[in-house]
Fold each of these.
Amino acid sequence: MPESLLDRVRVVLLEPRDPINIAATVRVMKNMGVRDLRLVRPVAYDPYRIEGIAHDTQDIVARIRHHDDLDEALAGCVRVAAFAGKRRAAKWIVQSPREAAADLLAHAASGPVALLFGREDWGLPREALDKSAVTVHIPTTEHSSLNLAQAVMVGLYELHVAAGDATRVLKPSRKSAPPATQDEYERMAGDARRALDTIDFFKTRNAEYVMRTVRSLAYRSSPDAREIQLVRAIWIEVVRAFERVTGRPSPGEGAPRGAEGGSAAHDASPPRADAAAAPTPPERDS
């Protein structure tokens, strides 16, 4: 498998205090395709527990490296981005997570790059920020305090998307169907017209305007062939329910097939005895 730029991304946690945050960071790294985790003076933790919290991450946990000094954790990196919740008094390059992702990947072509995160209670000290080329701010409300693993997720997600070479491809639906054809749209419109006639929907409404809206809604939703058949079945069942309840044919039975397309419930059947009833005038486009 060819090397991805994500293989050159290093996540560095400075003095993490909670093993759960370490585990959550490991899970995020597994999700986003980053494998190099460096911990600087971390709280004591049990790797077995980390794997218990972040399932199927043995490969990430086995690669974790511990350092007593931040310089050791950042050694060899050609670019360091420090994630901080507050702006610095000194003028410094400030980026959003998305901008930082593009910047880090551009430098990753030349060597390892690092995302630096501070401890949960007070973040990164000035001495650590001084070792970074850029400061990254995650847009939030006035409440800017984020959980450590959440901040890692935001940073790595943007890197993952920007890299564009690690995202899994979702399999298509097993019940995929071709797009609905124009004939199917016409038959659906005919079924809708017949059903709405049956329940006397047009008694106080303009049939032409209503049907134009029905058509517009159908086209904007872009149903596939299976979905439009389901919509037709609903309209057809309205007519059949009327006939079952009242014991008489629906008022729409005599409507000409060409005005709004034929109904699947009746197209294959011979005309009924009352087919000579006054037809519904075909709608006109304006």
Amino acid sequence: MTGTRAAVWATGAVAVAASAAVALQVKEYKSGIVWPEPKVVAPGKTDRDPPADAVVLFDGKDLSRWDKGENWEVKDGVATVRKSDITTKDAFGDCQLHLEFATPEKVEGKGQGRGNSGVFLMGKYEVQILDSVDNPTYFDGQAAAVYKQSPPMVNASRGPGEWQTYDIVFTAPRFAPDGKVAKPAYVTVVHNGVVVHNHFELLGGTFFDRPPAYEKHAERLPIRLQNHGNPVRFRNIWVREIAPIEGKKPQ
């Protein structure tokens, strides 16, 4: 071994030894929180398919899980808006909601009169459904807007007649005993795989004719799909109730 190589080897050996010594001196941080083991949930075969713990609200067969579901047309695995709004028979609070929709292939009307529907979380907080391809309207009323509160960050709409997806994560508001808001509602919306709202803080209920405002309500309420006079189609709707995992902090 030449002198140069020996020097390089010796330097490397010293560095490794020094690193090992430092590692022995580093103490691992531990929070002391005792966490429960996370529940195992089998995912769907694809991201569109419901996980094992999901409540399937519409699987293409019928709208038996919805009040006034008989007012809509169910055909070939698709539910089409007809006479009225429909509302889930079950109530939900914090949740993950997946739904697929298509605005009419035949383009009729303009603005808010074209491919209009909406998904109302807890029956009060609307994520707008609209044909928003070459269809000017007010921005906080276009597709994927939190109605009258915020436009989507980007317009991720597909064209008329094409199937689209909403994946929504919703945190319900909390109210104090006196009716005041203890914690506001939050919503994250992914439209066709694109994040368009990231943990957006709702200012209250979404209304057409007045500013947003909170009104004390139950911890869980039904989800509502809107009839706005346009034959919007829906398929593959499911929801999961969600809750943060809680650990025991050290005394």
Amino acid sequence: MIKDIINNIGNMFASVYDTSHIKAKILGTLIALIIFPIIKKFILSPIINNIKNPEKRYNWNKVVSYVFYFLLFFIVGSFWFEGFESIATFLGLVAGGVAIALKDPLSNIAGWLHIITRAPFKIGDRIQLGEYAGDVVDITFSNFTIMEMGDGDQNTGRLIHIPNGQIFINSLANYEKGFHFIWNEIPVLVTFESNWEKAKMLLQGVIKIKSEKYHFNANDMMKKASKKFMIRKTSLEPSVYTSVKDSGVELTIRHLCKPRDKRDIQEDIWETILKEFKKEIDIDFAYPTVRRFMNKEEGKSTMIEEKYVSNNES
């Protein structure tokens, strides 16, 4: 068995370097290396560049490139390895060693196959993988590239190249799949002395108006997403929640928005809140402060005593 394999490998190399065939193989290789790039540059590339949709143009460009290199490798290989079938056993023997030596590259290729077949994300999607978040701008055999997302969920301008194998290790969040909205919360802190009930009513009015302005068909998207994922029915209406913090009463606005519109919508809401609170003399924003409290002068017992004395005098 081993002797046959060695003889087959020897015959393969003998056929490759046989002077009667070497010139034809070199000529065929050169022709393939010249003809294929010409076809790609002058025929396929102009056709692809005429596609107006950037996403479709990118996808077609990738597909053509993959097919191009595969055919080029296959044709050139067919010139030089006529006895390719005979070395299949030999390649099987070394496959285990190659898999160990090339663990990371093979993991990246497996990740690439997972991305193109299962489509956990595609070009243009906004994702978060582990500690990295951004918009996907490129996908290759070895890695995919995202435009980093910074504060305010806006692009920083930096490109991050992430190995494809990382999708098997880290948790992936896709902002564009399933339910295309996120819940955004805006905390508004007012002083304890403020009329927080009036402030809450004002905030409810503001977020109601803004929700009508930025109206999205969230209910239909929720129904569509619930058919594929186990999503329980919940209210999609905006709301305002009350809580107490060290520096005052916190009123938290909770509303739906699209991930890419978060900062613009939040700015619009804040500007309206600032204008509304400016009109009210009994509502003030709270911030961390240090104050002295004299219990004997300001405490409840003192106030009750003063009220009791005042009633007796009257």
